[in-house]
Amino acid sequence: MLFVEKSVFEQLIAAVEMVPEESCGFLFGQSGDSSTQICKFMPVSNVSPDCKEVRFEIASRDFLVAERLAEKDNLELTGIYHTHLIDSAYPSETDRMSAFPNFSYLIISLPNLRFSEMRFWRLNSNNQFEEEVFEILN
Asked: What residue range is the signal peptide (predicted)?
């Protein structure tokens, strides 16, 4: 089970709404035996050489920065988020092919550049996405 702090949810939505290309970044938190609490996010530039309205790519140096930030703040790098401007919050085949195991993937759907829905996903042992249950904490 994932828990997202309400302030993180609100700040994240405010950061990605009205951005005319896929936004992306990292999620940080603390993991327990059966749950993870997400308490921070870090936006990064979409460096995709392809059409940024439907593709995103994170630079390798941004992964290093995220790992250092997690260590500095005594947090775990728990996942990656990105937006879909046209599609729903379901992962594409491109999303699946570029995903890492043991990460949560948050997809935020933004039709007309406005928040519609968000869903979390994780790769299973068959390299397929399974939806993760989440709750927003007040």
From this structure: none
Q: Which two tokens stand for residue 16?
A: 């990605």
Domain that holds residue 75: 2-137
Is 109 within 8 Å of 118 (Cβ atoms)?
yes
Q: What CATH code is carried by the domain that includes residue 42?
A: 3.40.140.10
Could you tell me the two tokens for 67? 């790992």
Query: How many CA atoms are closer than 13 Å to the CA of 134, on its beta-carbon side?
Result: 24
Helix, strand or coil for residue 62?
Answer: helix
pLDDT in tens, the chain (138 residues): 999 999 999 999 999 999 999 999 999 999 988 899 999 999 999 999 989 999 999 999 999 999 999 999 999 999 999 999 998 999 999 999 999 988 999 999 999 999 999 999 999 999 999 999 999 998
Q: Are 4 and 133 in contact (CB under 8 A)?
A: no
The candidate with the shortest Cα–Cα distance to 79, out of 17, 138, 6, 2, is 2
- Burial class (CB within 10 angstroms; exposed 0-12, middle 13-18, buried 19+) of 101: exposed
Q: What is the rounded distance in angstroms from the CA atom of residue 82 to the CA atom of residue 17?
A: 12
